Amino acid sequence: MKRTIIFLLTLLLVMRTICVVGQSSQTSKPRTIVTTDGEIDDVDSFIRMLLYANEFRLEGLVYSSSMWHYKGDGKGTKMVSEMEMTKKMYGERTDLRWPGVTWMQDLIGAYEIIYPKLSTHATGFPTAKHLSSLIKVGNIDFEGEMKQTTEGSEFIKNKLLDQTTEPIYLQVWGGTNTIARALKSIEEQYKNTPQWAKIQDKVSKKVILFTIMDQDATYKNYVAVSWPAIKIYYNSHQFACLAYPWKQQVPVALHSFLEGKFMSNEIINNHGALTKMYYSYGDGQKQAGDGGHTHGDSTNLTNIQWGSFGKYDFISEGDSPAYLHLIDVGLNNLENPQFGGWGGRLIQSKTNLSRWEDGEATADFNPYSQKMDIVYGQTRWIDVLQQDFAARADWCVKSYKDANHAPKVLVKQGNKLTVKAGESIDLNAVTADSDGNKVLVRFWQYQEIGTSPEKVSIDSTGNRAKISVPKNAKVGHTIHIIVEAKDNGTPKLTRYQRVILTVK
Q1: What are 365's strand-pairing partners?
Q2: pLDDT of residue 303
Q3: Sign of the CA dihedral 278, 283, 287, 292?
């Protein structure tokens, strides 16, 4: 009882301070629609996403196609990929590795089984019935097909034209073609009317595309040309540490969080109906329709391209950064994707101000290789992400008192402070943990993000730190300090606050 009272008093202080200093800038959860081609890594991304479905407002789940997967029109019509890689790989095809349009329903059926337990751990989890109502079939016949108006494209179109001006994040797990068709339908309806300029401006301000590579040519050929003001977050490198080549991208010291012992014991097995459907190496599962899915064959765990694997090893969740970006863990990356967060970090293009992308300009220092690394902006969170995933898996089968839940943290001084060169300032973190766990606070500088090239001195004890600003810091430069709060529960869970110091 004493521990409970102490926690409640601390939590009250945390919540009160949040209101006073105005830390909770996110007034509502972000709106989002997922478009997916159904590859096995999409399935695994989808399973993890369902366990975080309380963290954002899912408003659509749309089947689409890509350079890797399409249904065909059933008439024997052939096509050759517009994308150089798949053009060489597959040549002329009538259909390609199509997984069908029922796999989302199957996963939501499993979600319905674990929902009663899952929903006791946090508010806001949508019901299976609601999620099922969001499923639509978009443009799936061929890679890049956007001539047809489909149920999915019309659904997206109506969302883009609705009355709210809130941003809507369109997650592109496959090709962009269904979204392109929705935008084309808006253009066709309004292009030659007096409303066109207003409509185009409204839609362009609402839409944020989060794409994992280009998986068809419709963004390049249509969206970027006809809707140049639409924001696009383009992840073409960092996703790799959560995708098929993870063994080459993730430091060996972190491999254990993706290997079979962890994946099997902490996530896949004995955690309910949903995570049991998660695809892993050697698990004996086979996705219907996709002849390329041989990863479940336990007699063939050596892949010439990706390496050798053990049973239950992680395969891929290449699309997960698209929604990991939306989860508010205190890093404030939704305010600016350049800040970096669980979805990686992207930098605004100098030639196209509507585009944020990764690459050489977003390289972070990798302490394992002691080199700058264009993937480390995502890799740096792997252990935290996997432990958080394990906790969510526990939520599927454990009561609240037997599971772990993330701590809360804030900084008394606020998140945006002005400082002078040579000045020392104090930061005081306040933490709370609903499970009564101890919370360890660490202060560190995310040096690659701040505009100041200087490294600050951080002298910390417990929840307090003294930050010494370099004497040669320039006026206008920024310094990003991450206040990291990790509990000692099982699994260990972490949340953050970001403090931005601006030199005046």
Answers
A1: 372
A2: 79
A3: positive
Is the Cβ–Cβ distance between 417 and 425 less than 8 Å? yes
Mean pLDDT of 322-341: 97
Q: What is the pLDDT of residues 299-317, one digit of tens each?
A: 989 877 889 999 999 999 9
Confidence grade of residue 384 (pLDDT, cut at 50, 70, 90): very high
CA distances from 417 to 423, 432, 466, 478 (A): 12, 23, 14, 10
Question: Contact, 122 vs 408, CB < 8 A?
Answer: no
Question: Cis link prior to 470 (omega < 30° from 0)?
Answer: no
Residue type at 473 in one-letter notation: A
Distance CA 106, CA 202 (A): 36
The 3-state DSSP class for residue 126 equals coil
pTM of structure: 0.94
Contact criterion met (CB below 8 Å) for 357 and 283: no
What is the rounded average pLDDT of the residues 140-153?
98
Query: Which residue is listed with tokens 């040579």?
Result: 422
Q: What residue spans of 63-176 are helical by DSSP H?
A: 84-90, 103-118, 128-133, 151-160
Query: Which pLDDT score is estimated for 395?
Result: 99
**CB neighbourhood size of 438 (10 A):** 11
Strands (E), 198-316: 207-212, 231-235, 302-303, 307-308
CB 69 within 8 A of CB 206: no
72: its two tokens: 């065909």
Distance (Å) of CA 444 to CA 130, 341, 383, 449, 483: 41, 14, 17, 12, 7
What pLDDT is stored for residue 49 in this prediction?
A: 98
